[in-house]
Amino acid sequence: MNKLITILGIIVMLGVVYLLSDNKKAINKRTVFTALGAQLVLALFLIKVPLGSWIIEQSARAVTKLFSFANEGLTFVFGDLFGQGYFFIDVLGVIIFLSALTGILSYLGVVGWIVKIIGGAVGKILGTEKAESFVAVANMFLGQTEAPFLVAKYLPNMTKSELMTVMVSGMGSVSASILVGYSLLGIPMKWLLITTALVPFGSLLVAKILTPETEISKVSDVTLNRKGANTSVFSAMSEGINNGLQMVLGIGASLIAVISIVALLNSILGLVGTSFTEALGYIFLPIGWLMGLNGSEAMIAGQILGTKMSINEFVAYADLAPMMAELSERAVAMLSIAVGSFGAFASIAICVTGLSVFAPTRKNDLSKLALRGMLGGFIVPILSAMFVGLFL
User: Taking the model in full, what pTM does it have?
Assistant: First the structure.
């Protein structure tokens, strides 16, 4: 019964995306149904096929092992303070290491090579242009303002549909550098990696419904910019370190402010017998039910997803982690995936500002697309969770 409700949920969520479309008649049915089929096949492969499950399990172990190398640097700097449960040190500190490593791998062309191969395949399967396909794939590894850098010189000439793809894939994914933060909160790495794997097809599926292609693409012969302004691998590492530090400070400041504000709101609303999180739970409860979760789990899903959209995904994961013990394995998997994107109101300004740096002449177009792009980015991982939930 739960899986039948999940199928209904997929239909309803796609219906919501359809209602948000700015040109329903122009929707390319081949692209949409191919992307839909690809998501189902990929979810089936990763969950039910032994080889797919093995790949995910081994990848999770490898990534966890990679995280552990950060312990050396953290122990050297913080000594006995490391490993004592201090959130800023144990969780956020690792992000700096991964950000530096991502910078190095990008400079050396490793990220670009993977993006080019997978992106080329995705583009051929769906019939989408190279630049937008590359960005959708790049968001498996990079953040919403980092991935577009690979095709920055093409952004000013992109069609509105291609720009929507850039925005949806950016706000419909999370950065690989920050996965460690979620994992150290207690979110299973297996489900985080599956979330990442489902980004390209999921983003293109939603984006091509929201803003179908009606223009002739001006972007061709795409070459990826892997070095940026860096002149050496050490320069790239330094940039990665600085980016990681800014990310850590931003997350820390956000958590301090938001958790405090939520506590204040809970105290105020407590005077009328409710709380901010409970109110969010009721508002987003229908999504939890459409995911095929039972009554109490649907309520928790509503609270978590409401927190994610109104605040950010990090706070939502921080709220989810201590609740996982009272949830079924299916609910843990689906919520771990559903929260996995930057699709929140706060991301709109970040996305528009970041992309406008590369394409200042398209700021008005970006601003007009931003709200629907954010909603698309919010829906992408929820659909991914529903696809996975069909096989659990």
Answer: 0.87
